[in-house]
Amino acid sequence: MLEINAVSRSFGDFVALDNVSLHIQAGEFFTLLGPSGCGKTTLLRLIAGFDQADSGQILLDGKSLCALPPELRPVHTVFQSYALFPHMTVAENIAFPLRMAKMSKSEIAHRVAEVLDDVRLPDKANHCPDALSGGQKQRIAIARALVNRPRLLLLDEPLSALDAKLREQMQIELINLQKEVGITFVYVTHDQGEALALSHRIAVMNKGEISQIDEPSVLYSYPDNRFVADFIGQCNILDAKVVSSDAQKVSIAVAGLGELTATANPEITFNSGDSCALTLRPEKIRLAATLEAGSDEVLFSGKVHDMLYLGDVTVYIIELANGVLIEAMLANDAPGRTRLFDTGDAVQIAWRIDAGHLVP
Amino acid sequence: MNRAERLRNHLMALPPALYLLLFFAVPSVMMLFASFRYPGEYGGLAPWYYIEDGQLSLDFTLENWLRLFESGIYLGLLFKSLGYALLTTLICTIMAYPLALMIARSQKRFRDLLLLLVILPFWSNFLVRIYAWMIIFSPQGALTIGLNHVTGALGLEPISLMFSSTAVITCLVYVHLPFMILPLYANLEKHDNRLLDAAQDLGANRFQCFWLITWPQSLPGIYAGAILVFIPSLGIFAIPDLLGGTNGIMIGNVIKQQFVESRDWPFGSVLSLVLTGITLLLVLLAAKLGKTGGANSGT
Ligand SMILES: Nc1ncnc2c1ncn2[C@@H]1O[C@H](COP(=O)(O)OP(=O)(O)OP(=O)(O)O)[C@@H](O)[C@H]1O
Ligand SMILES: [Mg+2]
């Protein structure tokens, strides 16, 4: 539905977007995820029409948007600062896009009431925006952007100003709302947890380029490159060299650990001698005082170097022979105050060879 | 609010209250008192009591107030002055708005310079600037000569700018324009430009962005500027004195005349009080409008 083809945008010498291409399907909850300054807002402004691309095309339903000013694009934005009009009531704010569309008074009243119900604030119609809490302002901003049923809704870090509890609640509401209205959402965030929780698909951006576009679970388990592996979730990343490879498994040499086998995305080819990295999620590592390695597992001995108690889990940093540090995680699921290991304890770790994922 | 806080709030309000009492309330009461007395033989006021045959008599009169209504001259002049002040305020608003908007939207580093240009005229004396206008409006001035070339070419009567209401209002606008620009700028400068982005995003064109977002939020700035322009132009006498001739005379001139040339202090007091009353009424109205019109704009 929305096609972004080879779009670039520079500010002076600084390249904010470099040859970005995206295809977003109708009805999708699509997220742009990346660290601060990677160009997410710049891309959103291009889609909304506040800025023009230096090169490349943006097509909505097959038609180019480039010649249209923002007010004529069927695209609405939820701004990070909410941008509610302070001199209008909540109802007047929500009615604004409908007035601009020259809708009749009765139709406007009907739609405003309907959307206020959707965001569960029916009794706030005659309040001033200043009298609302952050979460309520956010919902009104979303209601205002949705009420005229745009083809595309752009959301620029809409939840970043809310506290953690409220954010989680709003995330659930956003998912439900999107399902209900069926409008395509393009959501911008630098919070990987939020992106994984909300999206149908995620585009990970880095320094103005797209690193990978995939579903959340694919992105998490099978990252295409070091940046994605590192940016999404916790990850052990070990430098390695390819020894030999066949279709499924690649044999690699990891400094300090010797020769190992790991799996890789089939579309990436590894030649012997290439440098690469082994990525390993902490929760996929088994950890115990002594372990019996299965036939498809690799096993190492080491000692607890450091630990981090997080409540539901404890993260252990294990120092293997030769000083290699590996992060592992144990759930604190036993009753009582569990404390399985102490710093300095000798432990063993093991992981299945298909848990180790290879990236260039 | 506990007692200490309330006490502190009262104490904070004390200096302005004292100031008002000393420089507004007391003189007003004195004027009210004077407005019921007879003028002195050589100016000033006649004694308000005399003792005759050991009997005390008070000497007050309603004459001065009746005189206000007896001849239509004074009320007419009052209305004319109100009209001049209103027109001045209106022209100032129309001229100041684009300028204030332009300054508020210009780059930060130019703003101080542009504001400096706005207040630059204050650096030279008020009377000197009015004399400058006398030169501009004079029949030998380039402006009049130039205009009369045009009227001559069109076959019209030659016009004279000096000593006319046009000259008075032009100069009133010139003098008071900065008092409209500055509060308006202070208001516009605080506007959140992201609101304009949001409005445009939701389908508003440039005109709608201005009329529905910028304009309503700027009303408190306009009210503040209007008060600062309207009040001084209503009572002014120097400008009509020098530029108005007989046609351009305003109520301020008559008040000054009563106190200085005619030496009729009681009637001067009546006129002053009426002027003060009207001004006060209009200010209260503007304050009320400002409160309801721009309650949420943060000004
Ligand atoms: N108008 C501009 N002029 C110059 N540089 C700009 C402009 N707009 C953006 N940039 C630069 O482009 C880069 C990308 O900015 P952008 O706002 O898109 O980042 P972002 O991914 O949204 O970051 P954040 O998560 O912090 O909002 C930044 O380094 C920024 O400094
Ligand atoms: Mg941003």
TrEMBL record, chain A:
Q: Give the PROSITE patterns listed for this entry.
A: ABC_TRANSPORTER_1 (PS00211), ABC_TRANSPORTER_2 (PS50893)
Superkingdom classification of source: Bacteria
Stated EC number for the protein is 7.6.2.11
Family annotation (Gene3D superfamilies): 2.40.50.100, P-loop containing nucleotide triphosphate hydrolases
- Tell me the InterPro entries matching this sequence: AAA+_ATPase (IPR003593), ABC_SmlMolc_Importer (IPR050093), ABC_transporter-like_ATP-bd (IPR003439), ABC_transporter-like_CS (IPR017871), Mo/tungstate-bd_C_term_dom (IPR008995), P-loop_NTPase (IPR027417), PotA-like (IPR005893), Transp-assoc_OB_typ2 (IPR013611)
Catalysed transformations (reactions): ATP + H2O + polyamine-[polyamine-binding protein]Side 1 = ADP + phosphate + polyamineSide 2 + [polyamine-binding protein]Side 1
A GO molecular function term, named singly, is:
ATP hydrolysis activity
ABC transporter domain boundaries = 2-232
Q: Which GO terms describe its biological process?
A: putrescine transport
GO cellular component terms?
ATP-binding cassette (ABC) transporter complex
Query: Which keywords, in A-to-Z order, does the entry hold?
Result: ATP-binding, Cell membrane, Membrane, Nucleotide-binding, Translocase, Transport
Subunit and interaction comment: The complex is composed of two ATP-binding proteins (PotA), two transmembrane proteins (PotB and PotC) and a solute-binding protein (PotD).
**Function (record text):** Part of the ABC transporter complex PotABCD involved in spermidine/putrescine import. Responsible for energy coupling to the transport system.
Q: Which family does it belong to?
A: Belongs to the ABC transporter superfamily. Spermidine/putrescine importer (TC 3.A.1.11.1) family.
Record protein name field: Spermidine/putrescine import ATP-binding protein PotA
Organism of origin = Zhongshania antarctica
Gene (name only): potA
Automatic annotation (TrEMBL), chain B:
Instruction: Provide GO CC annotations from the record.
Output: plasma membrane
Q: Where in the cell is it found?
A: Cell membrane
Keyword Glycoprotein tagged: no
Give the membrane topology: Multi-pass membrane protein
| InterPro entries the record matches | MetI-like, MetI-like_sf
Which keywords annotate this record? Cell membrane, Membrane, Transmembrane, Transmembrane helix, Transport
Q: Which GO biological process entries does UniProt record here? A: transmembrane transport
Say yes or no: keyword GTP-binding present: no
Give the residue spans that cross the bilayer: 12-36, 73-101, 113-139, 159-186, 265-287
Q: Which residues form the ABC transmembrane type-1 domain?
A: 78-286
Question: Which family does the record claim for this protein?
Answer: Belongs to the binding-protein-dependent transport system permease family. CysTW subfamily.
Name by which UniProt lists this protein: Spermidine/putrescine transport system permease protein
